[in-house]
Structure formats: C-alpha cells, structure tokens
C-alpha cells in the first residue's frame, strides 16, 4: 500500500552511476553529443503505485539539451506516500574535448591523480621498464584520441631518462583540441654503462658522474655546450648558481632539457652490465635494464644467509652454547692478565 519504490530504472544508451538499487534515489549518466534523446525504462515495485516523469512533456522519451539535464521521477504509492528518483544526465557538447580516464600501464601511478581538468602529469617507473602503454579514454566515442609517441601497437618506447608523452583529444565537431601530457621518468640505472662505440662513450658521458648521462640538461647558451646529468648539475648549483667549470653566473631558465640527446643515447648500443662476468649481450641502452634483470651472468642480488650460517666456522663460533664459551674464555683471560699484573 505504501510502497513507492521503483523496481527497475534504466536509460537506453546510457549507464547509470551508481547501478540502480530501489533505495538509491540519485544517479548520474553521460551520453555522447550525437545522442539527442533517450528512452527511460522504469517499473514500480507495486503495480498499484503510479509514476510521473517531471521533465519535458512527461513522456518516457526524453529530449536532451547540451549539458546537464535533470530528470526527476516521482513515484506515488496507493496510500499517497511519495518518493522522487533523479537522474542527472549530461549530454556532451560536440565542441567538448576531454578525457574521462588516463593511465600508464601496467599500473604506474600518475601524479597528481587523474582528473579530466588537469592537463599535466608525471609518472615514475623502474630503470628496467622500457616500454609502457597509455590508456586514454574519452567520454564520447566521437572524440578523437591520439597518443603522439605510440607505435602502431599502442605502446610507447621510453628514453633512459625522461619521456614526454602527449595525448591529444579532438572534439567531435573538430573545433576544439585538448592536450594532456605525462612526463615519464625512469629510475637511474644502478650500474656503470659501457657503450660499444668509443665515440658514443665520449659523446654520452657526463663530465661530472663520468657515467652515461641521466636526464641530460645543458646550460643555456654555453659555448662549448656544457651538458650534465640533471641530478649532478642540480647538486653542484644548489648553493651557488654558477657554471661548475667556468664559474660564470647562470641566468634565469639556464637549464635546457636535452631530450633529443636522451633519445639518441637510448638507442645507442651498450654492453651488458655483466660483461666482466662473461655476458656477451649487446643491446640498446634503453633496453639493457630489462636484460640485466634476466641476465644469466647477473651476480646474486642479496647474500644468501645460509652461505654463512651453514658453515662450520659459523656453527663453531655463533651457535648459542659455543658463543657463550668464547665470552667466558675472554673474561677469564682478562682476569688472568689483571692478576698477573698485580702479583
Ligand atoms: Zn647480460
């Protein structure tokens, strides 16, 4: 008699959020710009209850305007008890360009957390990660999404240091364009790098770290051009903003990212980090990290404690009873020396 619930509520061509439940009364949904009307499908729990659509002409076919359309559905039970369900239905404008979701696979964290109206992100990955996939979803399938650096397979190869990924979204009517960027930074390679070509070795060596450049930057208008790995030049200029070699003061925006150099260096050939242990592998610098993880010549990463604890030496000196003995002997010796000195 007093049942004013809906048993079913759906919008043809749109997904309600959250999913319909009789006790939830407010929903949101989004439809592409190309959809001008939607059909509501609803059913009251009690066949005696009546319902009324408080939108437009009150029919179940709802004509939508661009932007937010709030559709209220009033359900009246037989005894007059009432309840209102609402759907906030957004019809995207044909001139809108935005993303609904943006992610770097597999499961790399974006900073800040994605929000459709934030356009610049950063993301840190491990040194052995040389390729990622960008997942970019537009709210409207009529928007065109392009990941500029991606190959045909959709994956993006990464430089050894920073890689700037640009995701471009074009509105359905082609009048608007929105660009989202992600700077993906790989962790510093924890091994010294040896290039196969001596010329590469000279060209790609940081004059401070004496290792391959990491996130190379040059000093603006320096002649000859001075290039350093970012972390080292940052450290050197932390206290005084001068060129580390010539001691000339550095002006504003003195730091120039050497992205092209990073890219060239990433495809230069290097020896495996474990060449000294016998590995003959030669790979691009950008891909050597992944090889290093699986290299059969890789030394064991951590000392296995059993290599120590299962030796006779360890048993003799450090198992509980004998270690006590050592201590006892030691104090006895001290005592004897003490007494001999005074006798
Ligand atoms: Zn190797």
**Major sheet: size, sense and barrel closure?**
4 strands, mixed
Strand order of the largest sheet: 2-7-6-4
The counted number of beta strands is 19
Tell me the fraction of residues in β-strands, as a range: 25-35%
State the name of the first-level CATH class of the largest domain: Alpha Beta
List the ligand species: zinc ion
Morphology: elongated
CATH superfamily of the largest domain: Zinc/RING finger domain, C3HC4 (zinc finger)
Radius of gyration computed on alpha carbons: 34 Å
Spell the H/E element sequence.
EEEEEEEEEEEEEEHEEHEHEEHHHH
Number of helices: 7
Please indicate the count of domains. Answer: 4
CATH architectural grouping of the largest domain: 2-Layer Sandwich
- How far apart lie the N and C ends? 110 Å
Mean pLDDT: 87
Provide the helix percentage: 10-25%
Summarize the structure.
With 343 residues, the protein is an alpha+beta fold. Helix content is 19%, strand content 31%. The chain has a four-stranded mixed beta sheet, with no helix packed on it. A four-stranded mixed beta sheet has the order 9-14-13-11, with no helix packed on it. Strands 1-3-5 form a three-stranded antiparallel beta sheet, with no helix packed on it.
Tell me what the structure shows:
The structure is a single chain. The chain is an alpha+beta fold and 343 residues long. It folds into four domains: 6-91, Immunoglobulin-like, CATH 2.60.40; 101-186, Sandwich (Immunoglobulin-like); 198-294, Herpes Virus-1, CATH 3.30.40; 303-331, no CATH class. Helices cover 19% and strands 31% of the residues. The protein is built from seven helices and 19 strands. The protein has helices at residues 198-203, 230-236, 259-266, 285-294, 306-309, 312-318, 320-342; strands at 6-11, 26-31, 37-44, 50-54, 61-63, 67-76, 82-91, 101-105, 120-125, 131-137, 144-147, 155-157, 162-170, 177-186, 216-219, 227-229, 255-257, 269-271, 282-284. The chain has a four-stranded mixed beta sheet with strand order 2-7-6-4, with no helix packed on it. Helix 6 packs across helix 7. The longest helix is centred in the C-terminal third of the chain and has 23 residues, at 320-342. It is elongated, with a radius of gyration of 34 Å. The termini are far apart. Bound molecules: zinc ion. Zinc ion (ZN) binds next to loops. Zinc ion binds at residues 272, 274, 279, 281, 291, 295, 297.
């Amino acid at each position: 008699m007093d049942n004013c619930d809906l048993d079913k509520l759906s919008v043809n061509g749109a997904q309600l959020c959250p999913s319909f439940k009789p006790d939830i009364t407010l929903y949101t949904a989004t439809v592409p710009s190309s959809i001008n009307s939607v059909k509501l499908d609803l059913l009251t729990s009690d066949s005696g209850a009546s319902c009324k659509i408080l939108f437009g002409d009150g029919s179940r076919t709802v004509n939508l305007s661009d932007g937010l359309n709030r559709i209220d559905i009033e359900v009246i039970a037989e005894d007059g008890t009432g309840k209102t369900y609402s759907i906030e239905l957004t019809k995207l404008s044909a001139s809108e360009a935005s993303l609904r979701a943006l992610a770097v696979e597999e499961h790399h964290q974006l900073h800040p957390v994605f929000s459709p109206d934030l356009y610049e992100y950063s993301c840190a990955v491990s040194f052995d990660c040389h390729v990622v996939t960008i997942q970019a979803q537009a709210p409207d399938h009529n928007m065109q999404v392009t990941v500029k650096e991606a190959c045909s397979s959709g994956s993006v190869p990464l430089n050894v240091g920073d890689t700037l990924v640009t995701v471009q979204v074009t509105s359905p009517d082609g009048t608007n364009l929105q660009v989202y960027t992600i700077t993906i930074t790989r962790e510093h390679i924890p091994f010294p790098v040896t290039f196969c070509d001596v010329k590469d070795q000279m060209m790609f060596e940081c004059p401070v770290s004496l290792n391959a450049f990491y996130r190379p930057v040059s000093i603006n208008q320096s002649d000859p051009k001075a290039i350093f790995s970012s972390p080292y030049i940052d450290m050197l200029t932390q206290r005084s903003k001068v060129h580390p070699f010539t001691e000339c003061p550095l002006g504003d925006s003195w730091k120039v990212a050497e992205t092209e150099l990073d890219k060239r260096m990433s495809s230069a050939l290097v020896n495996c980090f474990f060449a000294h242990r016998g590995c003959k592998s030669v790979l691009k610098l950008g891909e050597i990290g992944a090889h290093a993880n699986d290299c059969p010549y890789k030394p064991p990463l951590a000392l296995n404690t059993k290599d120590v604890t299962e030796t006779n030496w360890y048993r003799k000196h450090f198992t509980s009873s004998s270690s006590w003995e050592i201590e006892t002997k030691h104090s006895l010796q001290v005592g004897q020396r003490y007494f001999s000195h005074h006798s």
